[in-house]
Amino acid sequence: MAIFALNSAVLADVSPLRDLSISTVRDYGIVMGETVTGEIRAAVAQGYELQTAALPLPGSAISDHLELRDVRWSKETLGDDSVYRIALTYQVFKGVREPETLTVPALRLRFDRGGQSFETEVPAWHFTLSPLIAPAVSDEAVKLRGDLPPPVYSSVSHWRGFSAFLAGLAGLSLYAAWRLGLPPFRRNATPFFLALRGLKKLSGQAPGVENHRQALRLVHRALDETAGHVLFAAELDRFLQAHAHYEVAREELAGFFALSERLFFAAGEPDVPQDALSRLQALCRTMIAAGSGKR
Amino acid sequence: MEWLKSKRLPAGFYAVFILCLAGTIVQAVEIYRLESLSRAMTDPLGVVVDEGTPAAVVFAKAHGLDRAGNPEEAIRLYTSLRNAEDRDLRARALHNLATLYLRDGARRWNARGVLEFERVNTLIELAKEDYREALRLNPDDWDARYNLEYAWRITPPPKEKDKSDWRGSKSSVFSTLPGLPAGGP
User: Fold this and answer.
1) Residue A18, SS3?
2) Is residue B65 included in any domain, yes or no?
3) What is the second-level CATH architecture of the domain A2-132?
4) Which residues on neighbouring strands pair with residue A134, listed in sequence order?
5) Is the Cα dihedral A248, A250, A255, A259 positive or negative?
6) Which residues of A fall within a CB distance of 8 Å from B102?
7) Which chain A residues in 85-124 lie under 8 Å from chain B, judged by CB atoms?
8) Residue B140, in any domain of the structure
9) B131 to chain A: which residues are within 8 Å by CB?
10) Domain(s) of CATH 2.60.40.10: residues in chain A
């Protein structure tokens, strides 16, 4: 880093300007079109404000070969002083055949405090501009650099975004289905729906007393769940009063309880109707339909 | 987890759902636009350029025309991209425009030198201005830096003024001034 410091000793003790220096990251090997930044550090007595409106504007031509690209400044307090750092970035537009020293012109800074003000001049500073084309190469031998190809537009990042949002939508849809008991979850299916599903499975198995008992247990479980307690045949009236929408199935329910009585408690080998399973399935369908009508 | 058991969806669900839906639509539209653009750019010479033609397709056509040996039309199309909104595309167009000018200027300079002073000077100055603008937009364009330096190298020296062929026969210009007519007041 090159630093061009002004001797503070020459600044009078009473001067509000305490220190002034310029630094640049590199002041050599600069080439055509490159940007070069000079940072001015100005320490002034507290209370003095830099008049930033007086700074040159980005885009303005500073000299025949220099354009100002950017101006940034910051302020910090250091003891009794305010320290301003002003970074000025210039762009060089000059072609040279051999290294050449270019000058960044002096810059005037103005500081105000109340009614008082003072100006100071940041002295000119220099950097070395180097050629890009070897000096020994003749003009005729220089090979021009070619043109630029059309830009390539890739949709890969958008495909990624699309996939991510789509995955989000799918996840949210699944979540909503689970919450609302929609397919494929059907978590909130009525007890009779589950019983019907069990009955269908049983109908594919070999018929027998145990098979029918299992079928009856399924329907009993659905009724118990719907009633909120174990439902006995004697409680059917009370159940139908509490769940009036199931009134349509009164007869079927009575038949179900009678069948259950026979199958579970009758002495000897019970007499099971051939169509017991299909009647139980029909009962479940009636109960499902009655239940959905309520909803 | 009790809230999970309730059937109602939380309010935030709808906001996130709408966000995802909007994101999906935006991305899908962008994919469609880019795919259409890429398709058009694979055969740019077949594109009829009008006001609605995307700048990238205009650029691709200009590039293709230059390759096909029609630099004049390429210059016309690149020039139309001087004010393109896409900064990168604008910088590329200026770079290529400058290169077209410089290529022509260099060819003439190397072939005939100062004999084509006017033409070479105009072309080189146009190239320099466009390279400068391209570098303002993208200072890291090394090829533009290189070519601009070359443009500086071959900038013709100022042409000497033609000698005046006026030959006065009078010893003084005052002698040509008409005098006061005789008999005046």
Assistant:
1) strand
2) no
3) Sandwich (2.60)
4) none
5) positive
6) 144
7) 91, 93-97
8) yes
9) 33
10) 2-132
Q: Which of A32, A144, A169 sits opposite B20 (nearest CB)?
A: A169
The amino acid at B27 = Q
Q: Domain range holding B90? A: 82-158
| Stated length of chain A | 295
Of residues A195, A210, A216, the one with CA closest to residue A259 = A216
Residue A187 with chain B: CB contacts under 8 Å: none
Does B152 contact A154 at a Cβ distance shorter than 8 Å? Answer: no
Whether B150 is in a domain gets the answer yes
- Six-digit token pair at B170? 């009078």
A34 touches chain B (CB under 8 A): yes
Calculate ∠ Cα A148-A67-A131, nearest 5°: 60
Cα dihedral B105→B106→B112→B114 (10° resolution): 70
Q: Which two tokens stand for residue A151?
A: 């830009």
DSSP state of A56: P
CA–CA dist B84, B142 (Å, integer): 22
What is the secondary structure of B97-118 as a DSSP string?
A: HHHHHHHHHHHHHHHHGGGGHH
Q: What is the DSSP letter of A195?
A: H
Q: Token pair of A28, please?
A: 């050599």
Number of domains in chain B: 1
Instruction: Check CB contact under 8 Å for B136 and A67.
Output: yes
SS3 of residue A41 by DSSP: strand
Asked if the structure places residue B42 within a domain, the reply is no
Sign of CA dihedral A23, A25, A28, A31: negative
Convert the pLDDT of each residue in A221-273 to its tens digit.
Answer: 999 999 889 999 899 999 999 989 899 999 999 999 988 888 888 777 777 78
Helix (H) or strand (E) holding B36: helix B11-42
Q: Is the peptide bond before A184 cis (omega within 30 degrees of 0)?
A: yes
- Residue pLDDT, tens place only, A3-28: 665 544 444 456 889 999 999 999 99
Could you tell me the pTM of the whole model? 0.66
For chain B, give the number of residues: 185
Kindly report, residue by residue over A118-176, the tens digit of the pLDDT. Answer: 999 999 999 999 999 999 999 889 999 999 999 988 899 999 999 999 999 999 999 98
Q: Provide the β-strand partners of residue A66.
A: A92
